[in-house]
Design brief:
four-stranded mixed sheet, 2 domains, Bifunctional nuclease domain, Helix Hairpins, four-stranded antiparallel sheet, 191 residues, 7 helices, alpha+beta
Amino acid sequence: MITELGEQQVIFLREIGGDRTFPIMIGISEALAIDRRLKGVKFPRPLTHDLLVIIIEAMGGRLEKVVIDDLVDHTFYAKLHISRNGETVEVDARPSDAVALVASMDVPMFVNESIFSKAMQKDIGTKEDRINILRQRQTDLADSILEVSNMIIDEEFLSTAPPEEIDKRRRQLDMMQTEYQAIEEVLRKLG
């Protein structure tokens, strides 16, 4: 399910043959690519995700599977498993890009079991269930935002942490605030 939301989108991934599911925040371009692929819309020239498939195949490779394998600081991580000359290469990818590739290809997508324990909710078939998931995610984000906000204004942290760590925490805070605001907009649209 793709929930439209301006610059940010929410997709809900659900397992085949089960009721486990979880939401991922993605950008508008990835949402449009996924939507276009699911609807079978073709363009005369390759778009970015099409180009990636063409490059993999032109180099003698084949996308075997996609694995969403980690969730760290509210960010999902995925790997493309590409086979070439009898070897498999794992390539780091954003899950949204990976889903866009999988949406039009006969390629399975897997989710590491630990992701379900961190992000999964059962049976979100109704609008109210989706709203509850988003509200819970927003509550979790609010707690994390407060924690990181306090960290980056703490004098001791600022005076002892390396500049890279301070920048990392500021970027983390920005991402969490953006996701929080995006969820707020989705909740407003869903009523």
